[in-house]
Amino acid sequence: MSAQQTVTVGRRGLTPAEVVAVARHGAPVTIDTEALAGVAQSRARIEALADDSVPHYGVSTGFGALATTFISPDRRAQLQASLIRSHAAGTGAEVEIEVVRALHLLRLRTLVSGRTGVRPIVVETYAAMLNAGITPIVREYGSLGCSGDLAPLSHIALAAMGEGDVRVAGVKLTAAEALNAAGIEPLVLREKEGLALINGTDGMLGMLVLALHDLENLLEVADLSAAISIESQLGTDAVFAQDLMDLRPQLGQSQSAANLRTYLNPSPMVQSHKGPEDTRVQDAYSLRCSPQVHGAARDTATHAALIAGRELQSVVDNPVVTLDGRVESNGNFHGAPVAYVLDFLAIAIADLASISERRTDRALDKARSHGLPPFLADEVGVDSGLMIAQYAAAGIVSELKRLAVPASVDSIPSSAMQEDHVSMGWAAARKLRRGIDGLARVLAIELLTGTRALDLRAPLQPGPATGAVRELIRTEVAGPGPDRFLSPDMEAITEMVISGQVLAAARGAIN
């Protein structure tokens, strides 16, 4: 959807496209009026319980291990403010603005559900902050992914109270200054509202949605870069035939193979060695098995998107106000469903990068590249060619393999053993973001290598799609020749990959 379109937040939940539009592109939000009426209705139930002599968790008691401590009515505003101040305990580097906006938006969505018991003014304040471009500063460490992303969400709530620091258009301000400039009155929290603002999986979910959006592009770029490697290394496209894919009906594999057939057909370079003079029986695994590996990653992303879609329709808070007016404790804040797929994606990304790096390495090895010069160098011995570009890819792949170690299998008890099993989903999401960046860079190095190899096959010519990608890259990166400063070339192609330019060039040539 367009960044200019307004996203309406209501009871129906949000779509991934809406999350990306608000988080990454600054799309404005509005609150569904019917949903806002439901918020007021559930708040009336909380206020009735606040006057009850029987303790109710989060309304008239302390939190976590202090849940049995009754709090008198005159201390409850202080209780809510103290909860936010004490839980805004993030440390480390600032989290990216798009992640903070996703976190903020997804908490707003749960508040609008009418199941958390907050006042309408809380909902309206959160929406106004998003629309004013006020981004609370959230720190890297602090969430265990159980009882929600407590510390990150507390930094959002703290800013809504007019405390802590924020960024507006990249400029660091105090929250009080930013709210005042935007004409937003700081919140004074009442019963239950502190818990409602911080008890959710919104940070890890927001990062999952953003990662899946980016991975949709990178998965097809992986097919495209593989096609360029296969073509330039004089590989065959016969192994990607649909009838061969039908023998193993894995959906992602079939889609990847279809992409490879499209990008390689028609390719004069592939056709040039299809005769009986070609004595090779079959290509190496990194070429031949590209659809199997890429397809498995696709299927993993499909499963992760299913979990994300369900979570985007969920109400995550504790306690919740049920449809019939009960206020009930629950465990829906546990991040396990999201944490598992975040870790699963990290494994898939590491393997995608790994097979890409292997294809790059084959192109640089004269013993395996079928006639290409060592390291694709101009003057062998004097020039090193793309030797160290492969080193960079190998270094990234090694890092991605370390990042593939699951975070969700770890658990460190907290809150005096009340919270004795946690998901570590926030940590899983943080390492996945690093993995997405690494994959884009490894694919860019394969494209750098593959397009230079295409040039070195002249007068043989590539197919329309792969040729269009080569021409795009040549607008920023020179072709074969004496050694040059490689880092800017690698950065330029990485930007082309991330921005979608590479994929658009290929698609434009076949449509």
Automatic annotation (TrEMBL):
<comment type="pathway">
    <text>Amino-acid degradation; L-histidine degradation into L-glutamate; N-formimidoyl-L-glutamate from L-histidine: step 1/3.</text>
</comment>
<dbReference type="InterPro" id="IPR022313">
    <property type="entry name" value="Phe/His_NH3-lyase_AS"/>
</dbReference>
<comment type="similarity">
    <text>Belongs to the PAL/histidase family.</text>
</comment>
<dbReference type="GO" id="GO:0005737">
    <property type="term" value="C:cytoplasm"/>
</dbReference>
<dbReference type="InterPro" id="IPR001106">
    <property type="entry name" value="Aromatic_Lyase"/>
</dbReference>
<protein>
    <recommendedName>
        <fullName>Histidine ammonia-lyase</fullName>
        <ecNumber>4.3.1.3</ecNumber>
    </recommendedName>
</protein>
<dbReference type="InterPro" id="IPR008948">
    <property type="entry name" value="L-Aspartase-like"/>
</dbReference>
<dbReference type="GO" id="GO:0019557">
    <property type="term" value="P:L-histidine catabolic process to glutamate and formate"/>
</dbReference>
<dbReference type="GO" id="GO:0004397">
    <property type="term" value="F:histidine ammonia-lyase activity"/>
</dbReference>
<dbReference type="InterPro" id="IPR024083">
    <property type="entry name" value="Fumarase/histidase_N"/>
</dbReference>
<dbReference type="GO" id="GO:0019556">
    <property type="term" value="P:L-histidine catabolic process to glutamate and formamide"/>
</dbReference>
<dbReference type="InterPro" id="IPR005921">
    <property type="entry name" value="HutH"/>
</dbReference>
<keyword id="KW-0456">Lyase</keyword>
<dbReference type="Pfam" id="PF00221">
    <property type="entry name" value="Lyase_aromatic"/>
</dbReference>
<keyword id="KW-0369">Histidine metabolism</keyword>
